[in-house]
Amino acid sequence: MSDETLPSDATLCYAGEPLELVDLDAAGIKFDQRGLVPCVVQQHGTGEVLMVAWMNQESLRLTLQTGTTWFWSRSRSELWNKGATSGNVQQLKALLVDCDGDTLLAVVDSPGPACHTGHRSCMFRAIRREG
């Protein structure tokens, strides 16, 4: 990934705070018993939550190396480069890890729909409140 994607200085901020830049080995990512960690995908600039997917060590490495998002498909048991088939490849702007190391946040530039249904976001259904 280029320095343009992840600046090496303290100007990169999230939620109004400067980010601590850490190497992958120092990030302390905690994979579950299946070797997976959830990754929330958010649109750069707008904050839209586009999708949630799973990463394993290889998809995480590919994401950092290529600057595009790679995930592990639990249903197909294979790696997939998001948007490689549709042309809506997500360009990685930043990859954050939460304080516990058990969730990732990929901030991306997603040129088109992120959902396989054709919706911009996979979060297009709201559950009605009861009462």
Automatic annotation (TrEMBL):
Its cofactor is Mg(2+); Zn(2+). The keyword Kinase does not apply. SUPFAM superfamilies: HisI-like. Mg(2+) binds at residues 98, 100, 102. Zn(2+) binds at residues 99, 115, 122. InterPro entries: PRA-CH, PRib_AMP_CycHydrolase_dom, PRib_AMP_CycHydrolase_sf. The keyword Protein biosynthesis does not apply. Pathway: Amino-acid biosynthesis; L-histidine biosynthesis; L-histidine from 5-phospho-alpha-D-ribose 1-diphosphate: step 3/9. It catalyses: 1-(5-phospho-beta-D-ribosyl)-5'-AMP + H2O = 1-(5-phospho-beta-D-ribosyl)-5-[(5-phospho-beta-D-ribosylamino)methylideneamino]imidazole-4-carboxamide. Its EC number is 3.5.4.19. Pfam families: PRA-CH. Belongs to the PRA-CH family. Catalyzes the hydrolysis of the adenine ring of phosphoribosyl-AMP. This is Phosphoribosyl-AMP cyclohydrolase. It comes from Parafannyhessea umbonata.
